[in-house]
Write a structure and sequence with these properties.
By secondary structure, this protein is mostly helical. It folds into two domains: about 300 residues, Beta Polymerase, domain 2, CATH 3.30.460.40; about 70 residues, no CATH class. Helix content is about 55%, strand content about 5%. The strands form three sheets. Strands 1-2-5 form a three-stranded mixed β-sheet. A two-stranded antiparallel sheet has the order 3-4. Helix 1 runs parallel beside helix 12, helix 4 packs across helix 5 and helix 14 crosses helix 15.
Amino acid sequence: MRARPFAALFDAVAACVRSDRDGLERALAGAPARRLFSQAVRHKCCGLLLYNIASLRIRTPELRELVELLRRYAGTAALDALATRSQVLDILEILSEHSIPNALLKGSARLFAGDRITEWTHTFDIDVFVPHEAADAAASALLEQGYRYQFDAATIAGYRRHHQHLAPLLPPGAGKPVELHVALMLSSYFSLRCDWHALKWHLEPMDESGSVLRLDAFGRALHMAMHGAGMYRLGDAAQMALELRSDPDLYRRLYAFMSGECIQPIPLLGVLAAGAQLAGMDADVEPAVRRYVEWTIAREDLPELCHNRMQLVDAWFANGGAFTGPATRLAFPPTRRYDGSATSYAERFRILAGRVVAGVAGAGYRSFL
């Protein structure tokens, strides 16, 4: 019997992180090629898989179809990465000319560093970290160079008030939207501070001049945990695992810091636990966190109809097996859009009803897996 596609992908990513040739070969052969590839695209793991297939010299004939799919994906991503890196350099120059403090985040930082795995993974935007008080100046500097906001004035203002980054800015020509982050994540999602001033001690230079900054290993892993809470993108946990493999003591420091989280402690620690599991670390994980990770792995193999509507079940596990708790409110539809307009009761009821039905159906389907 063949493994479920996401379960196979999880095992394959673990083998990549550990440079386990035999384990990677077994995992990749454990599910149909196209379904495994589809999961790898969704979870931004294609570059990681192809890089390790190449570096570990896996040439199994049974994997020919999957490897060809990954190569095509990586080929288009690599071409795109050249233009994106050039755009990143232009943005850094613009911000430097205006003396605006900034640091590259996530894939933007890895692209600047020449990371091959990132070059073989599609990037959808450019993330730049700036102090809250410098965000408007940073946006103005880009606007002067032909960038333009993607949304209307009301939505732009809504992003400024309620989101962790300003409204996306589109380049004057072809290129990626730019997101100017004033925090790693919304304060309504996490109680831990994650703005520039809280994390400035975790900034490090990326070039010899020291003018280009990024988050250090602790900051990068924290960002992956916050961004990946919910485990809807395995690539975040994979990046966490790579950081943990490079510095095993990082787990202890992250755990100590994340234990102070009040709103979503289990999802946050869940990404850390998943990263440790992928890295092959023997970490002491609380039962509620372990159950949360197990649920998210099972959830990703649910039918598409259920997959994106499991917020209520997610909340159950995020609260440690209860519907009452701080994570529950995040499972309900928002009362207002970014432009400030209210969402109707009918719209919220329709979305919530869909999540209830999907939750029941998904839980039932999982019991038969």
